[in-house]
């Protein structure tokens, strides 16, 4: 009995022992991430300094962005730099490359030469004549087709077409084109409907009621 009382006293003493106060530790809260902006990303505005030229190598389009100029023509592209009144270019056509140099003249004309590889004149002259805006509303220009790249040039009463392997001459009546084509030793007829300033569709046939196929033109 005495042992039990002694144990109870120990338990009471243990229960009344003072507990030290909690010590507050400094806590550094993480910096919250920035609020994501839903503003649209900046986009590069297309250059408005674009000019279309007629040339002895077909229609040429040049787009300038400061002193850098990019261009396209029949089967190739141009990468150029402006140096005063001179435009120095590299041209690329499939696996072939070369150089071209153009000089600005009055009226916006560019007089130049072009060559293979590192030469800019060993092939010959390349002169560019700016086309008036009125002519751009015609069929003049470069067109992609299912028979290769083509260039159209409207002449009085008709349209002349040069394409990858041949040429074609057409009579235009309203929105209709009636054409004859020649390609090496072959020739035939073609008829097209001008569906919009950017689309022509029709059919072709070889002379002597040969095979008929579809032929579509989409303006570049």
Mean pLDDT: 80
Mass-distribution shape: globular
Beta-strand content estimate: over 45%
Helix content: under 10%
Structural class determined from secondary elements: mainly beta
Poorly predicted parts: 1-15, 36-47
Q: How far is it from the N-terminal to the C-terminal residue, by CA? A: 112 Å
Write down the Rg.
Answer: 38 Å
Reading the helices and strands in chain order gives HEEEEEEEEEHEEEEEEEE
Fold and architecture overview:
With 220 residues, the protein is mostly beta strands. The protein has two domains: 50-130, Lipocalin (Beta Barrel); 139-219. It has two helices and 17 strands. The protein has a nine-stranded antiparallel beta sheet with strand order 8-7-6-5-4-3-2-1-9, with no helix packed on it. It has an eight-stranded antiparallel beta barrel with strand order 10-11-12-13-14-15-16-17. 18% of the residues are buried.
Please name the defining characteristics of this protein:
mainly beta; 2 helices; 8-stranded antiparallel beta barrel; 2 domains; 52% strand; 220 residues; 9-stranded antiparallel beta sheet; single chain; disordered N terminus; Lipocalin
Outline of the structure:
By secondary structure, the protein is mainly β. It has two helices and 17 strands. The chain has two domains: 50-130, Lipocalin (Beta Barrel), CATH 2.40.128; 139-219.
Break the fold down into its secondary structure elements and pairings:
Elements: H1 2-15, E1 50-55, E2 60-65, E3 68-73, E4 76-83, E5 86-93, E6 96-104, E7 110-116, E8 124-125, E9 128-130, H2 133-136, E10 141-145, E11 150-155, E12 158-163, E13 166-173, E14 176-183, E15 186-196, E16 199-206, E17 212-219
Antiparallel strand pairs: 1-2, 1-9, 2-3, 3-4, 4-5, 5-6, 6-7, 7-8, 10-11, 10-17, 11-12, 12-13, 13-14, 14-15, 15-16, 16-17
């Amino acid at each position: 009995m005495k042992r039990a009382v002694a144990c109870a006293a120990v338990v009471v003493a243990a229960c009344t022992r003072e507990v030290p106060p909690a010590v507050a530790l400094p806590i550094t809260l993480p910096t919250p991430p920035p609020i994501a902006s839903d503003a649209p990303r900046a986009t590069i505005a297309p250059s408005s300094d674009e000019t279309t030229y007629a040339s002895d190598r077909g229609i040429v389009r040049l787009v300038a962005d400061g002193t850098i100029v990019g261009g396209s023509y029949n089967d190739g592209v141009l990468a150029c730099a402006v140096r005063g009144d001179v435009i120095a270019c590299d041209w690329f056509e499939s696996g072939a490359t070369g150089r071209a140099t153009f000089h600005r003249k009055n009226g916006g004309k560019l007089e130049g030469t072009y060559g293979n590889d590192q030469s800019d004149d060993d092939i010959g002259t390349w002169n560019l004549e700016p086309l008036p805006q009125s002519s751009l509303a015609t069929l003049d220009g470069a067109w992609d087709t299912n028979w290769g790249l083509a260039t159209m040039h409207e002449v009085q009463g008709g349209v002349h077409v040069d394409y990858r392997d041949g040429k074609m001459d057409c009579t235009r009546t309203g929105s209709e084109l009636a054409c004859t084509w020649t390609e090496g030793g072959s020739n035939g007829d073609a008829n097209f409907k001008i569906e919009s300033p950017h689309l022509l569709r029709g059919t072709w046939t070889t002379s002597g009621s040969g095979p008929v196929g579809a032929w579509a033109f989409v303006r570049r």
